[in-house]
Amino acid sequence: MRDVRRALGDPDRAELARKLDISANSVSRYERGEQEPSFPVFSAYGSALGVNLHWLLTGTGSMFIGGDVKIENATLADIRKILWNITATFWETVPRKTKPESVADQAVEMLDYLVSREGVNDEAVTEVIQFEAERLKRTADTSD
């Protein structure tokens, strides 16, 4: 679990704990091997951080979900540009009361959807962003 924190850019334990919805002391105990995490903690590593649970349990395979997936003719720089564009554009279109975590979750879901398609291009990115923004607006309107 310490390797995960390092791979994420070495955030402090309190920041990581907030993302996992656990205490910083728990993160410390897990990292030192003093306590075994429960299933909900393992699940949080997967859902909140994108950690491959198989890797977390066995130490084999890719550390992150999709880490071994290759996208034809796309460089990491291409993917980073797409993700940045998705997030920035999506943020501009959602209601201001939308929580940052929701924007981040949706951006990752949109990226996952885009890379599952044949042919990722600017038109597809725009289409997905508009669809998700409208969906969030409808959700916000019905919850008021």
Report on this model:
Helix content is 67%, strand content 0%. The chain contains eight helices and no strands. Helix 7 runs antiparallel to helix 8 (122-143). The longest helix is centred in the C-terminal third of the chain and has 22 residues, at 122-143. It starts with a helix and ends with a helix.
Shape: globular
Name the helix and strand elements from N-terminus to C-terminus, one letter apiece: HHHHHHHH
What's the Cα radius of gyration? 17 Å
**Biggest sheet: strands, sense, closure?**
none
Q: Kindly report the average pLDDT value.
A: 80
Strand-pairing-aware structural class: mainly alpha
Please state the oligomeric state of the protein chains shown.
Answer: single chain
> How many E strands?
0
Number of alpha- plus pi-helical segments: 8
Q: How far is the first residue's CA from the last residue's CA?
A: 40 Å
Q: Stretches where pLDDT falls below 50 for ≥5 residues?
A: none
Task: Assess the beta-strand content as a share of residues.
Answer: under 5%
**What share of residues is helical?**
55-70%
Describe the secondary structure blueprint for this structure:
Layout: H1 2-7, H2 13-20, H3 24-32, H4 39-49, H5 53-58, H6 76-93, H7 100-116, H8 122-143
Helix pairs in contact: 2-3, 6-7, 6-8, 7-8
Which properties best describe this structure?
144 residues; mainly alpha; 8 helices
Summarize the structure.
The chain is mainly α.
